[in-house]
Amino acid sequence: MKALAALFIILLIIGCSGARDTSTMTPQEHFDYAMELYNEEDYEIVLNELQTIILQYPASVINDDAQYYIGMTYMKREQFLLAAYEFSKLIRDIPASPFVPEAQYMLAESYYLLSPPYQLDQVYSKKAIEEYQAFIDYFPVDPKVEEAEKKIAELNDKLAQKEYRSAVIYEKMEYLNAAIDYYGLVAETYHDTQYAPLALYNKIQIENDKNRRGEVLNDIADFLARYPDHRYAVELASLQETILAGNN
C-alpha cells in the first residue's frame, strides 16, 4: 500500500508539472512548449525552459524570443529588478532583434513599477524617466511613445512634489534661504509640472517679505510669462504694479 501511495504521489507531481521530454524537440518546438507554460502561468518552469533554450541553442533564431520572455516572466512574477536586467541584456547582446523596441519600453516599465511614493528615494523614478526617454529617442514613431511621454510627466510630477515638500518644510522651519533655493529648483527643473507655479509663487512671497524687490520683480515677470492664466497671475500682477509704483 505504501508503495502504491508513493507511486501515486510521483505520478500526481509529474502530471501537475506538465513536464515533457524536450531532448528530442527542435529549438522552435521547445520554445513553443515554453510559451504553453507561459500562457498557463506556470512561471517557475517557464524560466527553467527558457534559460535552457538560451544555453542549448545560443545561435538559434529563437534566442532573442527566449530572452525577451525571460524578462516578461519576471514581470509577471513582479520581480522587476530581475526583469530590468533581462531586458537590458537583450538590448545589449542582441541589438538587431525585433524585440529591442519592446524590450526598451519594458525596461522603463520595470523601473516605473519600482518607483515608490514621493516621500522615499526616487532613484527608480529617475531610472524610469531615463529609459522612457531613451525609448522615445530611439523609436520616435512607436505607438507607445505617447504612453511613455505620459509616464515621464507623471514621474516628473512625483520628483517635483518631493522637492516642493522639502521647500515647504524649510519654510515652516524658517530656513528661508533654503526654502528659496528649493522653490527655485522646482520652478526651474520641473517647470512643466503642477508644482512649478506653486513653487515660484511661494518663492516670490518669501522674497517680498525679505524686501528683495529686484528678485521679486524678476520672478513675477517670469511667472506671468509662463503661467498667464494661473489663479495667482492677477495677484502677482497687482504686486508688480505696487512695487513699480513705489520705485517711481
The helical percent reads over 70%
Radius of gyration: 28 Å
Point out poorly predicted stretches: 4-18
Largest sheet: none
Distance between the termini: 106 Å
Number of separate helices: 12
What do the pLDDT scores average to? 92
> How does the helix and strand content classify structurally?
mainly alpha
Total number of beta strands: 0
Order of helices and strands: HHHHHHHHHHHH
Verbal overview:
With 248 residues, the chain is mostly helical. Helices cover 76% and strands 0% of the residues. Mean pLDDT is 92; it is low at 4-18.
Helices and strands in order:
Blueprint: H1 2-17, H2 27-39, H3 43-56, H4 63-76, H5 80-93, H6 100-114, H7 123-138, H8 145-172, H9 176-189, H10 195-209, H11 213-226, H12 233-247
Helix pairs in contact: 2-3, 3-4, 4-5, 5-6, 6-7, 7-8, 8-9, 9-10, 10-11, 11-12
Condensed summary:
Helix content is 76%, strand content 0%. The protein is mainly alpha-helical.
Features:
248 residues; mainly alpha; 12 helices; elongated
